[in-house]
Design goal:
Largest sheet: 8 strands, antiparallel, barrel
Strand order of the largest sheet: 1-2-3-4-5-7-8-9
Order of helices and strands: HEEEEEEEEEEEEEEEEEEEEEEH
CATH architecture of the largest domain: Beta Barrel
Radius of gyration: 28 Å
CATH topology of the largest domain: Lipocalin
Structural class: mainly beta
Strand content: over 45%
Number of domains: 3
Number of helices: 2
Length: 318
């Protein structure tokens, strides 16, 4: 009896260790994955999933199958910069409805600066996947679809990779057409194509390359140039977006002064109405300096205005 109990316990521990792997579905293939963002703005990407035993890769990112769920444990190392904020994927989790459909969520953290330890907010996004039937090979860019490079400097293209729907590597067969001329500033393209297999050529992928001359930083305020805040309400600055001529974010290289003295914009004193503060943001690097100004006015709350008005009228008639 003791021997039987020991075997049962060990089997249970092994079950826990493997996470209750379910291989009812085989998701290996090329997929259209749609992320449903806030405000109804959806984004669809085409990517490769390769499944083997209790593991899988999702666009080259490794994951594990646990209790019928496909999980990519994060956070992923790279953050993406969108609309002035840094987005980091904490985890991707989805469940297969069958071999050709899945649905789940992507959990993300949002930061105001790339290297900031302080998270601005957390949220999650619904995702759905649909496997393509008998698709052509897939070409995937290495690096970003649009990049900025310095004129008169050597250009090394990040390249691309190609795969069949079963994950067979066809990268060596990619044909690249590179029009980049770093001697002249302008917009160029690098096109990646793949002669088809059985009459199914891969869809061409294009990278946009901007060759630019060194220039001072770009600094754009979020919110208005003039902001009113009520007395005693405190102040939270809307912030800014700052990047150099290569479109590299440079938030930590931006300094601020308040009425001419170095200071933190969110420390503005709102305890007294009628005061105004001029915040000057400065972005500086080896190519120059760019400034942007914001004026913050501390206003009197409506109830306080009514009280003063009452006192004034009372003094006239009593």
């Amino acid at each position: 009896m003791k021997g039987t109990k020991f075997v049962v316990i060990m089997a249970f521990l092994v079950f826990l260790g493997t996470g209750g792997v379910s291989l009812a579905a085989d998701l290996t293939g090329i997929w259209e994955v749609t992320a449903m963002g806030a405000g109804g703005e959806n984004r669809t990407d085409t990517l490769l999933i390769v499944q083997q035993d209790d593991s899988f890769t999702y666009a080259g990112i490794p994951g594990k199958i646990r209790n019928d769920k496909y999980i990519i444990f994060g956070p992923l190392p790279e953050k993406s910069f969108e609309k002035g904020l840094w987005i980091q994927v904490d985890q991707i989790e989805f469940t297969a409805e069958n071999d050709a459909n899945f649905k789940g969520r992507t959990y993300i953290s949002i930061y105001t600066e790339k290297d900031s330890p302080k998270r601005y907010m957390k949220t999650d996004i619904n995702i759905t996947g649909k496997k393509l039937v008998d698709p052509p090979p897939l070409i995937v860019l290495t690096g970003k679809p649009e990049i900025w490079v310095t004129s008169k400097a050597p250009y090394q293209d990040p390249g691309a990779k190609a795969f069949t729907e079963k994950g067979v590597d066809l990268t060596a067969q990619i044909v690249t057409k590179n029009t980049v001329d770093t001697n002249t500033a302008g917009e160029y393209t690098v096109t990646y194509s793949l002669p088809g297999d059985a009459g199914k050529p891969a869809k061409e992928i294009v990278r946009k390359v901007n060759v630019v001359d060194p220039a001072p930083p770009t600094l754009v305020l979020k919110g208005g140039e003039v902001v009113d805040t009520k007395k005693g309400a405190g102040y939270s600055d809307p912030g800014y977006v700052a990047y150099n001529y290569l479109k590299e974010e440079m938030g930590k290289k931006v300094t601020a002064t308040i009425n001419g003295a170095p200071g933190e914009p969110n420390s503005i004193d709102t305890s007294k109405s009628g005061k105004s503060y001029e915040i000057v943001f400065t972005a500086k690097d080896e190519n120059g300096t760019t400034t942007a100004k914001r004026t913050v006015n501390v206003t009197t709350p409506e109830d306080e205005k009514s009280f003063f008005k009452y006192c004034f009228i009372s003094s006239l008639f009593f």
